[in-house]
Amino acid sequence: MLSMFSYVEVLGDAGEAVADLKQLFSLSDKFGYSEWIQFDASIVRGLAYYTGIVFEGFDRGGKLRAICGGGRYDRLLSTFGGDDIPACGFGFGDAVIVELLKEKGLLPELSLQVENIVCALDPGLKEAAATVATILRGKGQSVDLVLENKPLKWVFKRAARIKANRLILVGDSEWQRGMVSVKVLSSGEQHEIKLDELE
C-alpha cells in the first residue's frame, strides 16, 4: 500500500483532492495519529453524496472486514430541504466490533434482566399495551413489550428467560375499567392495579 507521499509522486501535486489528502496526512502527523492511518486508493464508498475524503476503519491486525466506513459530505442536508453545512460521518458495524471485542476478551457480560414484561391479551389491545409500557418507562422502569400474537405460555417462558420481575397483562375487561392485571413472578401473586397507580 502506498504512503500518501508516494501517491503524490505518482499522480502529481495538482488538484483539490490531492491537496485535501496532503492536508489530512499533515494534520494527522501534527496531532500524533499518523501511524494509525494509511492511504488506500482502492477504497470507494458506494453512496453518491460524498464530497471529499472517504475512509474505512479496520482492526489493527486487518483480519476482519471494516469496523466503520464514511466520509465527507458537505451537500447532504440540501437533499432533505435543509441548508448545506460542512459535515463528516460514518456508519458503524456492530457485528464486527462485537467479534473484535470477543477476540480481545473485552466484551462485557451483561445479565439480561427486565423489570416488566407487558402483553396484550387481545390483538385489539396492542395500543393499550404500548400505553402501559410508556407509562412504566416514564417512571424509570425497564419494559419488554410483547406485540406479537403469542400464546400466554410463550409469554411466561419469555418472562423467565429475561428474568422479568412482573408480568403485566392488558385484558379487555380490566382495560375498560382503567386497570391492568399484574403478576409478581417471584411469588406468583396476582392482582389488578389502576393505571395511575402503576409503579
TrEMBL record:
The keyword Cell inner membrane does not apply. Keywords: Aminoacyl-tRNA synthetase, ATP-binding, Ligase, Nucleotide-binding, Protein biosynthesis. Residues 13-91 form the Class II Histidinyl-tRNA synthetase (HisRS)-like catalytic core domain. It is an enzyme of class 6 (ligase). GO terms for cellular component: cytoplasm. One of its GO terms (molecular function) is ATP binding. It catalyses: tRNA(His) + L-histidine + ATP = L-histidyl-tRNA(His) + AMP + diphosphate + H(+). It comes from the Eukaryota. GO terms for biological process: histidyl-tRNA aminoacylation. Its EC number is 6.1.1.21. Residues 119-198 form the Anticodon-binding domain. Pfam families: HGTP_anticodon, tRNA-synt_His. InterPro entries: aa-tRNA-synth_II/BPL/LPL, Anticodon-bd, Anticodon-bd_dom_sf, HisRS-like_core, HisRS/HisZ. PANTHER family: HISTIDINE--TRNA LIGASE, MITOCHONDRIAL-RELATED, HISTIDYL-TRNA SYNTHETASE. Belongs to the class-II aminoacyl-tRNA synthetase family. This is histidine--tRNA ligase.
